[in-house]
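Entry for the shared binder. Reason: the reviewer on the internal report wants the predicted structure included alongside the sequence.
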Amino acid sequence: MKKVLVIFAHPMLEKSLTQIKFIEGLKTMPHIFFHDLYQTYPDFDVDVEFEKELLLNHDVIVWQHPFYWYSSPPLLKQWIDLVLEHGWAYGKDGIYLKGKMIFNAITTGGPNFGYEETGFNKHTIRQFLAPFEQTAILCNMHYLPPFVMHGTHRASQDERIEFANSYKQLLTDLTVNKFYLHKLTSVKYLNELIPSSKNQTV
């Protein structure tokens, strides 16, 4: 079975009804390690060697975070800057992440139709996530489409629960290697691989 590492970054979790629902139960799911960066490093003093060891011990990496100004909260960027070192994650001798799968799991208040080239944000979610994708490519990892919940500000409790359950099902399916790589990379959002998940919210 594949082991999944969820690297979670949210500086104000207590204010996020959606993210709270998403992480409920993750800590008890088999073969999934939930790693809260803001809880672990409130002073931003990232333990690089510990983080490298976590990465080495897992097959699938998830960057889970709210979509802050078309990117991530600052501690996740700090994590990337410090942990993915030249000569370890990339470069001539940077072979340690080669072949691992990685993707972003994000929540955003904006609706699905706002993240199109013809929408008010002028770009797709995948285009905004290009720095994460290129980081993964540089590290010889397989970058997958994101898992996205749109419209979080107007979502009902039932919708939050539905998306949370779909997310947990996706992680479970990844641990048992349910999907071939070409299937994982063929969709817009990983949500589409879970039949019960809605791809759009108002």
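Summary line for the report: Residues 4-193 form a domain with the Rossmann fold fold (CATH 3.40.50.360).
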